[in-house]
Design brief:
The complex is a heterodimer of chains A (about 525) and B (about 350).
Chain A (H helix, E strand, L loop, with lengths): L4 H25 L9 E8 L17 E9 L3 H31 L7 H18 L6 H63 L5 H18 L2 E4 L5 E5 L2 E5 L2 E2 L2 E3 L6 H15 L6 H13 L4 E3 L2 E3 L4 H36 L4 E3 L22 E3 L14 E3 L9 E4 L8 H7 L13 H4 L3 H41 L3 H35 L6
Antiparallel strand pairs in A: 1-2, 3-4, 4-5, 5-6, 7-8, 8-9, 10-13, 11-12
Chain B lengths: L6 H28 L10 H58 L4 H22 L2 E2 L2 E2 L11 E5 L2 E2 L9 E2 L2 E4 L8 E2 L5 E2 L8 E3 L5 E3 L4 H5 L14 H13 L25 H52 L3 H27 L8
Antiparallel strand pairs in B: 1-2, 3-6, 4-5, 7-8, 9-10
Helix pairs in contact in B: 1-7, 2-3, 2-6, 3-5, 5-6
The chains are: A alpha+beta (about 525), B mainly alpha (about 350).
């Protein structure tokens, strides 16, 4: 046991507590830094050096204290939980946002929605029925039918265009998000490498880890990737079966070039349905349909492998692009198709009479002078599926004028309004599922619209509820994680006082040893002098 | 909840709660300022559906009212026309009775009576052709300008006094359906043709006919519009006028449909009184028509009263579904406000203090 070992022990204590205060300083400095994980100086007592020779056997005290490491208060389980909840919350949020946009578009219930426009059109028909052949009101009534029909068409066109735009915006946003993910994934790979180097050389890459974990959380939010701890403090990221980041390498996340427009997706879905229908198409038809399906399918790839994102914003976007928005578009199309087919069928009813006094016949020319009649609604957008009238493409027939409207039956006299009455009744009619006529089995546009709106409302409200639930879970898991990893100023203050006092104590010990040595060296042998 | 609480975790959770509070306040504020409970379908999907349904009902109800109003105008026009026809026919009857009582005084008197009767015939004919907004009241769906026109003039047999044969004039109604003898869509031959009513829908289930089939009320000389041939009132007035002007010798007149119209007996002195009998029958038909018009007017009036009260009910229903319960929302709002203020105050206190404040 050396006389000076006491000095040495005090010095180790001074050094250790200064270091602890440094760590406290770092913690307090980063109290508000996002992603910062609090650190601790891990202290350990030093054993006395093993005795040998003539001093062996003497009772010795320890050799002081040392800082063995600076550890992060990192809880892998809580952190993983936050990541999972972040991904889930992002998915729910994206879903709710898509549905909320769609439902805002319906403008229901109000006087601006499609149902009001349809109602106005039926009312115009009912009104025209009472004014057929009236000297001064007939022309005006026919024009107001056309005006109301034009408004319905404009509403459908505008709504469809907005859905289409929403699709394109989501597609663009998805591209931007994927770019961001790729850049962050490379950063994670680089950080992984630095962390590995630091760890293997005995350093404490705590700040690098914080930085990396923050990036990982953002990647999880965007893509719903899952994390797995690798060796030497590295983290690997898996995305729907693909490996996005492994150690220090990052694979590129990409999305297929096609589909470019929402119509591609809708056509792809229709083609898939046609392939599955009986009789199944064969030969060149089948090839053409398969090409449409391929063009309408959106694929996410990690490196060369196809991946299926299950949560995160990306999953929400894929869902919006391939399901939610195309479904809304098809629902709008169904309304347009029902409207056009039901009204057109009556506009061209065999034996009808138009405003010019011409009889409508299924076989034009028989009886003499009869014509085929004019469709009120036509489609101006070519589609591979010719029997469809889309909400985006529905338009008033080019040759439609007030007088080409068929309002009555020729046999009842030129001033009959019975056909207009039948058209006006479409709005309140019901589908007859047992009918042999496909048109009669179809719901009227008003009912289709009402069920679309209510379905959308129900889905949107449940998506909102799930989003707020996910938000609550996320908030509580973040609070838990912050509870473990966050900096508590109270705690740091208390620790600071403890470290300060320990430092003062060590200094006091040093003074005592110094005084002891002073006594020994300067006072020894002076007794009686 | 973990054992350890840090400033940051308190901050995160208080922020989330404050935001929740504020979001609820925003929602309540939106409800109060718009006055609507449902501003988008997801606010209440079921309520949205009822709102759409009630709105459609309201629209239909408005439509029924418009249609009913229009129907009443049609019927009123007919009422006026038929009242006038009725009074004209009464005047004609007085003349005929006068002629019968006074006997065949002089040629001059007879001619004067005859001219007056011709005038009445003309008036009745023009009343039968009355139009409402360009459409014939008594042949509603017909495209022609006139509801009824003279198609064949009367033919008197040769000789002085004229021979017994007399073919009354024929008036034909414009077609409002299949012609006599044509085949309808189901393959049935309609011997008297068909007649298309002008209908106005006055409630969900029923429509009311707002025109009148002139062929029924005035009679028709030619089968058509769903009515078998029987001498029309125009033709009858002409025949009476002709009979008074130039009394025929004994004999029968030629009729279009001998089965339907009783042949006027040969006896010369009975000819005019028989014709008077026929005029009474014709007047009866007009009165029946009038009663029918009145009944239909009543029906529409009643339906419109119902539609009016339905309108109030539907509006109230819509308001119940869509509009906010203002007192309830105001109370909620003030509760929410208190909660928000308390949350703000507590948060500011908690986040403000730390051990730092108490160390020298």
């Amino acid at each position: 046991m050396s006389t000076f070992s006491g000095i040495n022990a005090s010095v180790t204590a001074l050094r250790a507590h200064r270091s602890a205060m440094d760590v406290i300083g770092q913690n307090v400095a980063n109290v508000n830094t996002p992603g910062y994980t609090r650190q601790r100086a891990d202290l350990e007592m030093l054993n006395a050096p093993g005795g040998s020779g003539m001093l062996t056997g003497n009772k010795v005290t320890g050799g002081g204290v040392s800082v063995v490491g600076i550890s992060r208060a990192f809880d892998a389980v809580q952190s993983a939980r936050v990541n999972v909840q972040t991904g889930d919350h992002a998915l729910q949020q994206e879903r709710a946002a898509t549905l909320s946009d769609l439902e805002a578009l319906t403008q229901e219930p109000s006087d601006a929605g499609l149902s009001k426009q349809l109602n106005k059109m039926w009312a115009a028909y009912a009104d025209a029925a009472t004014k057929v052949g009236s000297t001064n009101a007939d022309g005006a009534a026919r024009q107001s039918v056309l005006g109301a029909a034009r408004n319905v068409v404009a509403s459908l066109n505008a709504a469809w265009n907005t859905v289409d735009q929403q699709w394109s915006t989501t597609r663009t946003q998805m591209g931007a998000d994927i770019d961001e993910v790729n850049s962050m994934a490379s950063s994670v790979a680089v950080l992984n490498e630095q962390i590995q180097k630091a760890t293997t050389t005995g350093g404490a890459p705590n700040e690098l880890m914080d930085k990396r974990d923050q990036l990982v959380t953002r990647i999880v939010e965007l893509t719903g990737a899952t994390t797995q701890a690798g060796r030497n403090g590295q983290v690997d990221l898996y995305l729907g079966g693909g490996l996005l980041v492994q150690g220090n390498t990052a694979a590129a996340l990409s999305v297929s070039e096609n589909p470019n427009t929402m119509s591609d997706v809708v056509n792809g879905q229709l083609a898939a349905e046609k392939i599955a229908s009986t009789p199944a198409p064969t030969g060149s038809d089948l090839v053409a349909l398969q090409a449409l399906v391929a063009k309408g399918t959106i694929t996410v790839k990690v490196g060369e492998n196809t991946a299926t994102p299950l949560s995160g914003k990306l999953a929400g976007q894929v869902e919006a692009l391939s399901k939610t928005l195309p479904k809304a578009s098809r629902d709008y199309d169904a309304v347009a198709t029902s409207l056009a087919q039901k009204v057109n069928a009556l506009q061209k009813v065999d034996g009808g009479i138009d405003g010019n006094g011409k009889t409508i016949s299924a076989t034009p020319g028989t009886p003499a002078g009869s014509i085929a009649g004019t469709d009120l609604f036509t489609s101006n957008t070519p589609s591979p599926f010719t029997d469809r009238i889309t909400a985006g493409g529905i338009a008033l027939g080019e040759s439609v004028t007030g007088n080409t409207l068929v309002l009555g039956m020729a046999v009842n006299g030129a001033k009959d309004g019975s056909v207009a009455v039948r058209i006006a009744a479409i709005g309140t009619s019901k589908a007859d599922p047992t009918s042999a006529d496909p048109l009669a089995r179809m719901d009227p546009p008003d009912r289709m619209w009402a069920s679309y709106v209510s379905d959308l409302g129900a889905r949107s409200s449940s998506a909102e509820a799930r989003t707020s639930a996910a938000q609550a879970v996320l908030t509580s898991s973040i609070a838990d994680q912050q509870g473990a990893a966050g900096v508590s100023l109270d705690e740091e203050s208390a620790d600071l006082i403890a470290a300060q006092r320990a430092y003062q104590g060590a200094a006091r010990v040093l003074t005592a040893v110094d005084e002891m040595l002073d006594t020994l060296i300067n006072k020894t042998g002076l007794v009686g002098r | 909840m973990t054992e350890r609480v840090t400033h940051r975790s308190i901050q995160e959770s208080s922020l989330a709660r404050l935001q929740g509070n504020l979001a609820t306040m925003g929602l309540l504020q939106a409800q109060i300022s718009s006055g609507k409970k449902i501003t988008k379908p997801s606010d209440d999907p079921a309520g949205t559906v009822s709102s759409l349904a009630v709105r459609q009902q309201l629209r239909l109800n408005d439509q029924y009212q418009v249609q009913g109003q229009d129907g009443i105008s049609w019927l009123n026009a007919q009422d006026t026309a038929l009242q006038t026809v009725s009074s004209q026919l009464r005047a004609a009857r007085t003349l005929v009775v006068g002629a019968l009582n006074e006997g065949y005084v002089t040629d001059g008197t007879r001619t004067a009576t005859s001219v007056e009767l011709d005038g009445i015939a003309q008036t009745v004919l023009s009343l039968a052709n009355t139009q409402y907004q360009g459409r014939s009241l008594f042949a509603g769906t017909a495209g022609a300008d006139h509801a009824v026109t003279l198609t064949t003039a009367a033919v008197t047999g040769a000789g002085t006094p004229p021979a017994v044969t007399y073919a009354p004039a024929q008036y034909t109604w414009s077609k409002t359906g299949l012609g006599a003898g044509e085949t309808d869509a189901t393959g049935v031959v309609r011997t008297s043709g068909t007649n298309t009513p002008v209908l106005r829908q006055i409630d969900a289930q029923s429509s009311v006919r707002v025109d009148t089939n002139g062929a029924d009320v005035f009679g028709t000389d030619v089968a058509g519009n769903g009515t078998a041939a029987s001498q029309s009132v125009f033709s009858l007035l002409r025949q009476i006028s002709d009979e008074i002007k130039t009394p025929k010798d004994a004999g029968a007149d030629i009729v279009v449909d001998p089965a339907a119209t009783p042949v006027v007996p040969v006896a010369k002195e009975h000819r005019l009184s028989t014709l008077l009998g026929r005029l009474d029958t014709a007047m009866g038909r007009v009165l029946e028509g009038l009663a029918d018009v009145g009944a239909r007017t009543n029906r529409i009036d009643h339906a419109m009263e119902i539609a009016q009260s339905n309108k109030y009910e539907l509006t109230e229903q819509l308001s119940k579904v869509e509009d906010v319960d203002l007192p309830a929302v105001m109370i909620q709002m003030s509760l929410q406000e208190t909660a928000y203020k308390a949350a703000l105050q507590v948060t500011s206190k908690v986040l403000n203090t730390s051990l730092m404040d108490f160390i020298r």
